[in-house]
Amino acid sequence: xxxxxxxxLDISYESTKVVDQLDLHIDNGEFLVLLGPSGCGKSTLLxxxxxxxxxxxxxxxxxxxxxxxxxxxxxxxxxxFQSYALYPTMSVEKNMSFGLRIAGVDKAIIEKKxxxxxxxLQLEPLLDRKPAALSGGQRQRVAIGRALxxxxxxxxxxxxxxxxxxxxxxxxxxxxxxxxNTLNSTMIYVTHDQIEALTLADxxxxxxxxxxxxxxxxxxxxxxxSNLFVATFLGSPAMNCVEGELEVKTDSVHFHAGKxxxxxxxxxxxxxxxxxxxxxxxVRPEHIEMTSVKDESLNQFSGCIELVEPMGSxxxxxxxxDTGHQLSHRTNSDETxxxxxxxxxxxxxxxxxxxxxxxxxxx
Length: 363
Known about the structure:
This protein folds into 2 domains: about 5-235, Rossmann fold, CATH 3.40.50; about 240-355, CATH 2.40.50.140. It is about 25% helix and about 35% strand. It has helices at about 40-50, 90-100, 105-120, 135-150, 165-185, 195-200, 220-225, 230-235; strands at about 5-15, 15-25, 30-35, 55-60, 65, 75-80, 155-160, 185-190, 205-210, 210-215, 240-250, 255, 260-265, 280-285, 290, 300-310, 315-320, 325-330, 340-345, 355. Strands 6-7-8-3-9-10 form a 6-stranded mixed β-sheet, sandwiched between helices. A 5-stranded antiparallel β-sheet has the order 13-12-11-14-20. A hairpin with a 2-residue loop joins strand 9 (about 205-210) and strand 10 (about 210-215).
């Protein structure tokens, strides 16, 4: 089993509070990603779960057993860090088996576990090599294998792919996903890379200033961000945000920002709204479409393309609308658009996010 419960956790460094009254439940076999900018407390939280730092308050339990003050070696966890931390004079096999040999595990069991992990991570041909003869991706697989041979119920990953190039990151991301599907162990993964978070996680905990801002599935975190911070942190390119106010009528609701007016009647408000309420409208670039059909009933606007950024499968366009607002939107890379072209766009109001400008919370 690998159920993790964190209750009212506080972590402080002198007078600076890094984690503040944090509650978190992680199910057995779940892949949870802690996502956030540098300094948000995600690695500190992971280190507390691993027992590498002391807490200031609250508790951590595994499968109902309080481990808040238990030594790391007695928590039954496997850890993989950003730094490979391999012994340069030892072979791959020796690096992977080092912890088991120190613990006095039987040689036959050690050999069986190393062979199992090596096969799982495609390291069998490399067992006799030393770290200097390995690529960065291979070294990180050795570090993962070293954690796997512990046969743990909970594995902790602290930005394990940050030192790799883009191609290797993509390859190892796939390997870690396959690994989780094979082992079905609980995995807690720290990253600031939203692509890693969205592709790997069962749930994402987005953190800021030691507080979880949203804990949800990748789909919901991306499409229904709980506040403006989450909305703007996730997404590349970032969500378009326009500040304005609401006009609430008996049969319609409109968002107004100067000459920009968007019909948001079918948004699905979950709380009371009123005319004049200060609102920030957020819309992702993929929810803005270019159109050649004029239809005043749609949320349609005219403008001029200022910049085109080719991105391979599609292109990112930056357009200045006649309303004076600049919006980014995507189009197929086969579209022959250049800066200076006139453009007509439609905003999909059903995919928009509306936030209270004062509280920054989602409406």
